[in-house]
Amino acid sequence: MIPVEIPAQLTKDERYRLISARLAALAAAERDPLANLCNFMAYLYWTVGGVNWVGLYLLRDGELVLGPFAGKPACSRLAPGKGVCGAAVRAGKSQLVPDVRAFPGHIACDDASRSELVIPLTVGGRTWGVLDLDSPEPARFDETDRAALEKIAAQIEAQAARL
Q1: CB atoms within 10 A of CB 80
Q2: Residue 135's beta-bridge partner residues?
Q3: Predicted local distance difference test score (pLDDT) of residue 81
Q4: Locate the GAF domain: which residues (predicted)?
Q5: Burial of 83 (0-12, 13-18, 19+ CB in 10 A)
Q6: How far apart, in Å, are the Cα atoms of 35 and each of 8, 18, 26, 111, 123?
Q7: Of 124, 111, 127, whose CA–CA distance to 162 is shortest?
Q8: In the chain, what are the domains?
Q9: Does the pLDDT of residue 150 top 90, yes or no?
């Protein structure tokens, strides 16, 4: 079992490096990519801190469809180009939203969410889905989170490529 405890004295960068290393250990211990994606979402949920939802939305026939996640039940389908997740797919780049209530067209799957970070995922040069992190804290995510989670997204993409 990979521990979810993160030493409090670590900087945010050190924290994310440890999270990434532990995700690699999880993947090394299990050959099934779907099991790994499920565990990745649970691990991020318990270790990133200050989040109320972490999960994947998978691009299926032009819609974003709920994939592995940790948190409360969520919207099963997101219309193309709608909300923060749709904006990430449309723009092909991460969306860092300090106040979701100020984001035009935000889709509230959980009214407690106040900030969001969405990272597009690509496999073989095409968008495969998004990594979505929600927080009940306004401005929870910053550029350090974005950069670190974009690196972690590469670990997610490596699993997705094996599905």
Answers
A1: 12
A2: 115
A3: 87
A4: 18-162
A5: buried
A6: 29, 20, 10, 29, 18
A7: 124
A8: 12-160 (3.30.450.40)
A9: yes
Residue labelled with tokens 């860092």: 96
- For the chain, the straight-line distance linking the first and the last C-alpha, in angstroms and rounded, comes to 23
Angstrom distance (rounded) from CA 65 to CA 57: 5
Question: Which pLDDT score is estimated for 98?
Answer: 98
CB 115 within 8 A of CB 138: yes
Residue 133 has pLDDT above 90, yes or no: yes
For residue 100, count other CB atoms closer than 10 A to its CB. Answer: 18
The β-bridge relationship of strands 126-135 and 53-60 is antiparallel
Question: Per-residue pLDDT tens for 35-64?
Answer: 999 999 999 999 999 999 999 999 999 999
Q: What is the pLDDT of residue 46?
A: 98
Which stretch of DSSP H or E encloses residue 150?
helix 143-160
Is the pTM above the cut of 0.70?
yes
